[in-house]
Automatic annotation (TrEMBL):
This protein's UniProt keywords: Exonuclease, Hydrolase, Nuclease
Species lineage: Bacteria, Pseudomonadati, Pseudomonadota, Alphaproteobacteria, Parvularculales
Biological processes, Gene Ontology terms: DNA metabolic process
Cited InterPro entries: Ribonucl_H (IPR013520), RNaseH-like_sf (IPR012337), RNaseH_sf (IPR036397)
Keyword Nuclease listed: yes
Residue stretches making up the Exonuclease domain: 7-179
Organism: Hyphococcus flavus
Protein's UniProt keywords contain NAD: no
CDD domains (alphabetical): DEDDh (cd06127)
GO MF annotation terms: exonuclease activity; nucleic acid binding
Superkingdom to which the source organism belongs: Bacteria
The protein, known as: 3'-5' exonuclease
SUPFAM superfamilies: Ribonuclease H-like
Length: 180
């Protein structure tokens, strides 16, 4: 059971590869799950030249374009932390929520620690796939977003845009919680 002090924030990222540090965080999308009109979105300059062509094909990003137009990572993380402070009134417990949260959280955690020295979410994340599995009793293979979409019937869909995916995830989270 959650506390009224908990503020659930849906976060999605697009990256240049599978692990932080060796690959770059390219975009962040986030929304307040209670009020998904409160959103955050940014694109970041890469911190390394390494890129998995499959990751770039999925996101549609160009490393060269992000070098030109992306925010400096420190600025992006300061802006994200400031937005989190505002939506939480500086008084609520921020809970990172993601679809396959371990992946997204690993990049957010790395970037917050590398560029700001601390992660406002702390050291944990809530995974929507695991929540759905626990709520429904389904098998892990049944936690794919396509199968969850069939069962929960959200209005939104994921499209590999970080903000759109964060909004989609927020809806999946609300529908999963409502089904208990």
């Amino acid at each position: 059971m959650s506390s009224a002090r908990d503020l659930f924030v849906s976060v999605d990222v697009e990256t240049s590869g599978p692990i932080p540090g060796e690959f770059s965080l390219l975009s962040i999308g986030a929304c307040n799950i209670e009020d998904d009109r409160q959103t955050f979105e940014c694109e970041l300059k890469p911190i390394t030249d390494r890129a998995d062509p499959k990751a770039l094909a999925i996101s549609g990003f160009s490393m060269e374009e992000l070098v030109r137009i992306g925010s400096e990572p420190e600025t992006a993380m300061k802006n994200f932390a400031s937005w989190l402070q505002v939506i939480s009134d500086g008084d609520r417990n921020l809970v990172f929520v993601g679809f396959n949260a371990p992946f997204d959280w690993s990049f957010i955690n790395y970037y917050f620690h590398r560029f700001l020295g601390k992660n406002p979410f702390g050291f944990a994340a809530l995974d929507i796939k695991a929540l759905y599995m626990g709520t429904t009793g389904c098998a892990w293979a049944e936690t794919k977003s396509s199968l969850m979409t069939e069962a929960l019937r959200p209005r939104r869909r994921g499209d590999h845009n970080a903000l759109s995916d964060a909004l989609f995830q927020a809806e999946l989270f609300r529908l999963t919680k409502a089904s208990t």
